[in-house]
Amino acid sequence: LTGTNGTGGEVNWMIEGITLDGNKASNGSATVPVLRVYGYGFEVKSLRIRNGNNEGLYSEWSTSLPSPGSDSMMAFGENLKVHDCGSHRIHWKGPHDSMWTKGEVFNNGARGVFVDAGGDGLEVWGVHCWGLTQTYAIYLGATGCRFTDCVAEGAITAQLALDANDCSFNGFVYGAGASAPVGVEFGPGGTRQDLMFVGKINNCTSGALKFTNDGGSLIVADIFQSGGTLTTGTISINSRHTLRTNGVAGSVDRLNGGLEIHGGSTLKLYSAADSGFATLAFDGSQVTNTWP
């Protein structure tokens, strides 16, 4: 049934209190996940998945909105630990509108938690994703996902990607030992809107916030880094950002194209007509400017 968008599949089942080991040392050619599911209305609890040569947990179901009849489509996860797999640790393509709470995902080969198209409306609480081998710790690529009190750290490309409309994240983003750490990336796959980040960003010196395709976002962030870049890319005029920084001078409030700079910071104004910047600097007593 994988990929068919059928409303069937296994339903009303539970896995609890078990470890699934993919034994990748002896299965180096394996191309399948340790656990692959097509179904709905299930629950996984106190589940450990490790050492898969491919993905750890892969789950998929139909995008159909009505209840399938025998149960609602929602699946539930609690106390999940997935680690040391060769590809995505958790690849979630449904059932949509599902819920997880408490988990740890680490030391894997691609993305830690990857919410893909079909996993819309996923709600997650208290999940920690970390490890220097992951491209993204958490990647939200399905509409309307909400992650609360979660941690994303140590990934190569960015710690968190918000790559679908109406996604939100509340928690902690940390560059850890990544060589060129980026904190939160907005729209790596295309223009996304109605995104929200509320939380703390630490030591993401290649860009605490990376606006690849920002179609409109709300950000309230406490950012600490000893140097490097605060933001990269272009911020949408439809965005509202309040940033408090420590280590990179000043803080920023942005509302509908207006910008306030606090704490002796420098403001650069860009002109597309002549590809030049005008620089305004305020040291608390006077404003100085440099015009192109």
Characterise this structure:
With 292 residues, the protein is an all-beta fold. It has no helices and 25 strands. The strands form three sheets. A twelve-stranded mixed sheet has the order 2-4-6-8-10-12-14-16-18-20-21-22, with no helix packed on it. Strands 1-3-5-7-9-11-13-15-17-19 form a ten-stranded parallel sheet, with no helix packed on it. A hairpin with a 4-residue loop joins strand 20 and strand 21 (251-255).
Short description, anyone?
With 292 residues, the protein is mainly beta.
If strands are numbered along the chain, what order do they take across the biggest sheet?
Answer: 2-4-6-8-10-12-14-16-18-20-21-22
End-to-end separation: 61 Å
DSSP strand tally? 25
Low-pLDDT residue intervals, each spanning 5 or more residues: none
Quick check: average pLDDT?
88
What's the alpha carbon Rg, rounded to whole Å? 21 Å
Biggest sheet features: 12 strands, mixed
Q: What fraction of the residues are assigned to beta strands by DSSP?
A: over 45%
Helix content: under 10%
* Mass-distribution shape: elongated
How many helices? The count is 0
One letter per element, helices H and strands E, the order comes to EEEEEEEEEEEEEEEEEEEEEEEEE
Task: Indicate the structural class.
Answer: mainly beta
